Amino acid sequence: MRSLVETTKPGITKLVTITSFVGFVMSSSSHPWSGSTLATAALGVVVGTALAAAGANAINQYMERERDARMPRTVGRPLPQQRVTPGQVLLAGVSLGIAGCLVLWLLNGLVPALIALACIVSYIAWYTPMKTRTAMATFVGAIPGALPPLIGWSAGSTSMGWDSLLEWGGISLFALMFVWQIPHFLAIAWMYKDDYAKGGYLVLPVVDPSGTWTAATIALWTVTLVPATLMPAIVMPDRLGTVYLAAASLSGIAFLLLAAKLVIGRTRADARVVFFASIIHLPLILLVMVAETLLGLMVG
User: Fold this and answer.
1) pLDDT 10s digits, 19-30
2) C-alpha to C-alpha distance for 133 and 100, rounded to whole angstroms
3) How many Cα atoms sit within 13 Å of 210 on the Cβ side?
4) How far is CA 298 from CA 103, 121, 167, 237, 291, in A?
5) Could you give the CA distance from residue 53 to residue 116 in angstroms, rounded to a whole number?
6) Residue 2 burial (CB < 10 Å; 0-12/13-18/19+)?
């Protein structure tokens, strides 16, 4: 059972669930809820998203089990070590994915469930096979990684059906997550480019041995991340203000300076610093975002 849980990539599942819940908080805070209705909706978002993400990750490990066995970074995973069978992982992944979509459908509505389904399908049917064909897969993979906030946003919105996806608050969260993933993943790919090459993955650092294009791409998307982090405050001024703007600006500038150091030095150590900066930057701004929104509700 522990090995099956490990195939769901708990760390990634947790991040996906958090970003979905942030979308729910930001959306639901704009209108009144009854206590029981709010609790039910929040429970649906958290449980449904977690199950759907866990299922997608398990299916991904099933699909990549042979390539994982070639890479030192992933050879310790349950399938390469034969701690579980491929059939068990596939069954668990499909079951979890279906359960997650059903929970979202029953507790939050059809739109959040379909967005979760889109995350699963795009991740395993589009992004996963594309990773061995082109370095552009990184940008495709950022789509299912950016959709979870829209699960939460659509679940907390008063708009009917698909209209909730046209609201600028949800769009801004999608944009933030999409842009953040590019420097984050490219930093990982730089750190483990030899592993990715052994696995047959055409990530940018593998096809760009000098690191010139990889560094330039990280720099470009880190620059883009600054306005992307400010966008939620611009489109949701009733919920976000000075506190969030200050945190997003300072964190974004610090991240940008570290990316500039990577462009100049182009070393694995610099990439490692950018990676750790990325996993500090995102939780920080999401925490400030939620905290200022909830504080505003309490004061108001």
Assistant:
1) 999 999 999 998
2) 30
3) 4
4) 30, 39, 24, 16, 11
5) 8
6) exposed
